[in-house]
Design a protein that fits this description.
Layout (H helix, E strand, L loop, with lengths): L9 E5 L3 H13 L3 E5 L2 H10 L4 E5 L7 H10 L8 E5 L4 H10 L3 E4 L4 H37 L7 H15 L4 H13 L9 H4 L7 H7 L2 H9 L9 H6 L20 H15 L11 H13 L5 H12 L16
Parallel strand pairs: 1-2, 1-3, 3-4, 4-5
Helix pairs in contact: 2-3, 3-4, 6-7, 6-12, 7-12
């Protein structure tokens, strides 16, 4: 059986000294890497914008745009921030190293470059990049699966994307740490992934569910958690998936948690989920206007279902135009 051919890793070497470019290029090509060279920072950026690169070796003191500037640009762009960057420098100044760290550099090499050290660091960073690529691929598969479930119901089109956007915005308003915002971004997309185990005749049923059908439907948070559990990067996403159908008074599922027993991130998602469901057309009713939706949500708060503080924050955020809502086309509707 033939093994699939593996694409050689592509390394960008950027240095204004031709001798150093040739030295590094020869060393790397001998080990089977594909090498692309740039003579300054601007040329390096054009290469990075135009083709896939697995690792960048950047001289710090280049004309036009420095290695620091190129590194900063790479790390600030979501499309390239995971590319490992090694800054190659003849500077021993601690301040320069600190500046490199602040720019997001993954490693440093000092000139003159030691051959074995160079190859060892390149191998190590490319191995980490491979793991990152595999992780991204796994997340992409999960997201695609979640969106395919959403696509089965025309009434939920765009629901996951809106939940992701609103939840992250609400978390930012509450000044939650970046890792929790990222968990909510992912959770908004995959929170209902467990519905893959729910038969379509139940999932798309326009009327009330029977008690047996309800039991099947209420398993989906646990199934979803089980699907995503192997991904260690989803550690903070799992509570969102499992608990986003709990209610503040303990009447939710799957565990009947009460109040602050429900993780804050799960409460944020459920608050946004309720609002989005009410302001979206359903087979059995038309979408409510924002005022009507919050009126109904506040009635449910009185029943003990939702966290009133989060409802207040969501309403204030939408009313103040801090995030664009599909149900708030203009200020005129809410004045």
């Amino acid at each position: 059986m033939l093994k699939p051919e593996l694409r050689p890793a592509t390394v960008l070497v950027a240095d204004d000294l031709e001798a150093y470019r040739s030295l590094l290029s020869d060393l790397l090509e001998e080990r089977g890497y594909k090498v692309i060279c740039a003579a300054d920072g601007d040329e390096a950026m054009k290469i990075l914008e135009g083709q896939a690169v697995d690792l960048a070796l950047l001289d710090v003191m280049m004309p036009r745009r420095t290695g620091f500037a190129v590194c900063r640009a790479l790390k600030s762009d979501p499309a390239s921030c995971l590319i490992p960057v090694v800054l190659v420098t003849g500077l021993d100044n601690t301040d320069d190293r600190i500046q490199g760290i602040e720019c997001g550099a993954d490693d440093f090499l000092s000139k003159p470059v030691n051959k074995e050290e160079l190859l060892a660091r390149v191998r190590s960073l490319l191995r980490l990049k491979q793991f990152t690529n595999e992780l991204e691929n796994a997340e992409t598969v999960l997201s695609s699966l979640a969106l395919s479930i959403e696509a089965k119901d025309p009434y939920t089109e765009g629901h996951c994307e809106r939940l992701s956007k609103y939840s992250v915005a609400l978390a930012a308003r509450l000044e939650l740490p970046e890792e929790q915002r990222e968990a909510l971004r992912r959770g908004g997309i995959v929170h209902d992934i467990g519905k893959v185990a729910v038969p379509e005749h139940i999932l798309l049923k326009p009327g009330p569910l029977t008690s047996e059908e309800r039991i099947i439907m209420q398993r989906h948070p646990v199934v979803g958690e089980r699907i995503c559990a192997p991904l260690k990067s989803f550690r903070l996403v799992l509570p969102i998936i499992r608990y986003h159908h709990e209610k503040y008074d303990g009447s939710g599922y799957p565990e009947g948690l009460k109040g602050e027993e429900i993780p804050l991130t799960a409460r944020i998602l459920q608050t946004v989920d309720v609002y989005d469901a009410l302001t979206t057309d359903r087979p059995y009713r038309k979408a409510l206007q924002p005022q009507q939706a919050f009126g109904q949500i506040r009635e449910e708060v009185k029943r003990g279902w939702w966290d009133v503080a989060l409802v207040d924050e969501l309403q204030a955020m939408l009313w103040n135009g801090r995030v664009e809502s599909h149900s708030l086309p203009s200020k005129a509707l809410i004045n």
